[in-house]
User: Which sequence fits this backbone?
């Protein structure tokens, strides 16, 4: 049964946090071209470009189905729309294929106002509605799926965790570089499902100490298990393919495979 998410997103921390977000992300993106286009292999596989209805018009996505009708499903959420974040971000792209190669049917998409998605940036509230619409679409296409995961990077991690709170059918999450220093994650009270949080120790955007504080708070909750992995020397965008990106993706794959065999929340 498809459920509709309540779309009121928690506010950014403090009145000056929006300015901080702009300054920190602006400096980081000036140093890193983190949103390279997806490789050509993205277009050669059996993965149609899809357009589905969102709250403010059409949303553009990439849908990668499995042959098995009861395959688990996952959506992957991209970083901040106002700072170059798109569904073709390297981290998002690699997460997408990690889930697909583990047997998931996967959807990633552009939030409103990005690429061919209609609408305008809406401070996280509208983007949460977009994510809910994407999950609705994915569930409608895969009514026999028994497992549902959400993965997000940076801003997408914040949106993904909010979606987790509103959709009880989500059984696991992957949160990469959650910006706990910029956004309020106190809505995770309690967090309804176990998941993996990954960050780099050299992250200058989402400060590692704030991620650790978030993880410590989640560890105090009963009934779930939060796994926390830190990538030594990695920055926010896991720039180096061999020493940062690939090991991070391997962490994700190992965690998801273990969870699927345990069949737990």
Assistant:
């Amino acid at each position: 049964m498809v459920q509709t998410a309540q779309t009121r997103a928690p506010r950014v921390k403090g009145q000056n946090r929006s300015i901080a977000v702009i300054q920190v992300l602006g400096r980081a993106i000036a140093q890193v071209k983190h949103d390279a286009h997806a490789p050509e292999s993205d277009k050669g596989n059996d993965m149609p470009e899809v357009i589905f209805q969102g709250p403010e018009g059409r949303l553009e996505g990439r849908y990668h189905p499995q042959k098995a009708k009861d395959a688990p499903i996952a959506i992957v959420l991209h970083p901040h729309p106002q700072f170059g974040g798109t569904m073709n971000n390297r981290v998002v792209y690699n997460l997408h294929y990690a889930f697909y190669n583990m047997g998931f049917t996967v959807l990633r998409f552009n939030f409103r106002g990005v690429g061919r998605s209609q609408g305008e940036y809406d401070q996280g509230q509208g983007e949460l509605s977009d994510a809910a619409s994407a999950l609705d679409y994915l569930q409608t296409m895969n009514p026999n799926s028994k497992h549902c995961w959400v993965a997000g990077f940076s801003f997408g991690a914040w949106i993904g965790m909010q979606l987790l709170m509103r959709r009880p059918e989500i059984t696991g999450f992957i949160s990469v570089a959650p910006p706990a220093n910029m956004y309020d994650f106190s809505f995770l009270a309690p967090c309804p499902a176990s998941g993996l949080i990954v960050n780099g120790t050299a992250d200058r955007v989402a400060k590692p100490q704030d991620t650790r504080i978030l993880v410590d708070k989640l560890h105090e909750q009963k009934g779930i298990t939060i796994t926390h992995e830190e990538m030594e020397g990695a920055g926010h965008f896991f720039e180096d393919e061999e020493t940062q990106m690939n090991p991070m993706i391997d962490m994700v794959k190992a965690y998801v495979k273990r969870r699927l065999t345990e069949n737990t929340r």
